[in-house]
Design a protein that fits this description.
14 strands, eight-stranded mixed β-sheet, Rossmann fold, Dihydrodipicolinate Reductase, domain 2, 308 residues, six-stranded parallel β-sheet, alpha/beta
């Protein structure tokens, strides 16, 4: 089990898609073993072989959800399809693993808002501090504040996010709203968790989704687009009128992430790396995650926007 000074046993449920990024970051964080769980034995074995070759290691092996329950890993990333997140978390939490869920934490397109909120709270109560959610844009907003490019509790916030995803309509919002809402909650601080959405206006299209609303004194405007043929993703903000763009560029041995605003360039740590590394550090220390209120608040605000 856990080596408090270094290595740890890890697993990724759903490693063939974005879960491969979690695999990369867990290896960087010091995982000494990594099990992957997928749809079936054949595809899971193929994913494990591919990842082992990519990372030059023999420590990545195929597994099953049942094996993870019987022989728990220290740290498990859940990157399965969104509507399976809750079931996978519920199955793994009693085994004692620390759980790291890819955003959105919990969502079912056919469920009512009450059902979603009830299940969210039950899972967080069951976890008792051993479950957190990947919130890279919250970490990005922390970097924006640290660089002095925005101030806490602004009066206006706009966000434009174009990705290479292939979702349409409301599914675009399910995919990208957690980014915006987690960033907004960082800006608003503890007070943001208790605020309610007012004056909501939503316009959806085949490859776009837009919304405007107020959250307390904050005026919010969101512009989401998805285009599988785009050369890359584009993420920018305007906070109290000041533009801030997230960018990345290739450097020797990889890439670096930076913030650009009014001619200023600030190189920052990759927010996804920060998000996963922080979660691993809590696991390694045997601590408890402190963000249950923020996690549930994102779910609550998503329900208000998409289920009202």
């Amino acid at each position: 089990m856990m080596d408090r000074k270094g290595g740890f046993a890890s697993a990724v449920v759903g490693a063939s898609g974005f879960g491969c990024v979690h695999v990369r970051e867990l290896i960087k964080a010091g995982a000494t073993s990594l099990r992957v769980v997928g749809r079936n034995a054949e595809s899971t074995a193929a994913t494990a072989r591919k990842l082992a070759t990519l990372h030059g290691t023999t420590s990545i092996v195929a597994s099953t959800l049942e094996e993870l329950v019987a022989e728990p890993a220290d740290f498990v990333s859940i990157c399965s399809p969104t509507e399976m997140h809750a079931d996978h978390a519920a199955a793994l939490l009693p085994a004692g693993s620390y759980i790291f869920v890819e955003k959105p934490f919990i969502w079912q397109s056919l469920a009512t808002a009450d059902d979603i909120l009830t299940r969210s709270q039950r899972l967080l109560d069951l976890a008792n501090g051993r479950l957190t959610v990947n919130q890279p844009t919250a970490r990005l907003m922390e970097a924006i504040l640290a660089a002095g490019l925005a101030k806490s509790r602004p009066r206006s916030f706009s966000m434009r996010y174009q990705t290479r995803g292939n979702y349409v309509g409301t599914d675009i919002a399910v995919d990208l709203l957690p980014h915006a809402l987690s960033a907004i909650l960082v800006l608003l601080g503890e007070a943001g968790a208790g605020l309610s959405i007012q004056d909501l206006s939503v316009v959806g299209g085949d490859n776009s989704w837009r919304a405007e609303f107020s959250l307390g004194a904050l005026a919010v405007s969101l512009d989401f687009l998805q285009d599988p043929g785009a050369p890359g993703s584009e993420l920018s903000f305007k906070i109290d009128g000041r533009p801030v763009r997230r960018g990345q560029r290739e450097i020797q041995g990889g890439f670096e992430v930076f913030l650009e605003s009014s001619g200023e360039i600030h190189v920052i740590e990759n927010p996804i790396s920060v998000s996963i590394a922080r979660a691993v550090d809590v696991c390694r220390a045997g601590g408890l995650y402190q963000d249950a209120v923020a996690i549930h608040s994102v779910v609550r605000l998503m329900c208000r926007i998409l289920k009202s």
